[in-house]
Design brief:
Length: 286
């Protein structure tokens, strides 16, 4: 790479924040660039079967409108563990054993278009992730929201005119039973009710915000993150999936019982090292 490209990925200041206008798409494009045509998209995996000398993956090609069989010596499954279990049809005992301990919290993600940014006041300024220090939610939702994101917080340009913030609400509850109840609330209540709850939550720190909102897009997510329930991270079955399962290598944040990017990245690197080791190749340099 040229000097300009190196500068993007190698900041001199170890505390510097790397960010790009297109977000993580920049990283994806840089990773895919040297692979060229080896990157195949538009394929939906239907089934994975481990044979004696290979792994077979049956996929549906969206472009060619047909089922195809792909064959590999080693396979990395970077899919949620529930999905991996279905694709493998119960063929990996550790995957089957951990299923009963995997519980996902439903999410509500709301994008608010406002005529301008919230008023600047004393205290912490708007940042990437803004969390309200409170132990309670609003009427109808006991749990507090995760907070909201201002994606332009690093912009050097003055914020003029329309502004967007993204509000996040994970409704896991304090138990699996509570999570199921929250899921039904998320599914059953109207969008108008949820929009009002979002405004009530944000108005606690920005009283003027409801008057700025011009439009709101709400999206209900039924899956969300794996809940870090007690005993999951140390469960023997989950620990076993960190190791190679024959020709299979698992890489997903579910394996840490805590779904954040850093965990997914670490498991991806580990799985890649396992594939290199299985192929008799040296592990990548740190």
């Amino acid at each position: 790479p040229g000097k300009a490209e190196r500068d993007l990925g190698e900041p001199a200041d170890h505390e510097a924040v790397m960010t790009w206008p297109e977000g993580n798409a920049h990283l994806v494009a840089r990773l895919a660039r040297p692979l060229g045509a080896r990157v195949q998209t538009g394929l939906v995996c239907l089934r994975v079967q481990v044979q004696k000398h290979e792994v077979q993956a049956d996929v549906w090609s969206v472009q060619r409108q047909q089922v195809e069989r792909w064959v590999a010596q080693q396979v990395v499954m970077a899919t949620p563990l529930k999905v991996s279990h279905r694709l493998l049809q119960g063929a990996v005992p550790a995957l089957a054993d951990v299923q009963a301990h995997l519980h996902q919290a439903p999410w509500l993600v709301s994008n608010l278009l406002m005529s301008g940014p919230p008023s600047v006041r004393a205290g912490a300024p708007l940042s990437w992730d803004n969390v309200v220090y409170t132990a309670s939610g609003v009427a109808g939702v006991p749990e507090p929201a995760l907070g909201y994101v201002d994606a332009r917080h690093q912009s050097l340009s003055p914020v003029l005119g329309a502004h967007v913030i993204t509000h996040y609400w994970a409704m896991g509850g304090a138990s699996v039973q509570a999570a199921k109840a929250r899921r039904q609330t998320l599914l059953g209540d109207s969008w108008q009710t949820w929009a009002q709850r979002v405004l009530l939550d944000l108005a606690r720190v920005h009283p003027e915000l409801p008057g700025l909102v011009q439009a709101m897009d709400l999206m209900r997510w039924g899956h969300g993150m794996v809940m870090p329930v007690p005993g999951l991270r140390s469960h023997p079955a989950l620990q076993a999936l960190w190791r190679a399962q024959g020709r299979l290598h698992f890489a997903h944040s579910d394996l840490s019982a805590y779904s954040v990017f850093e965990e997914a990245h670490a498991h991806g690197v580990r799985a890649a090292d396992q594939v290199l080791s299985a192929a008799g190749m040296p592990r990548r340099k740190a």
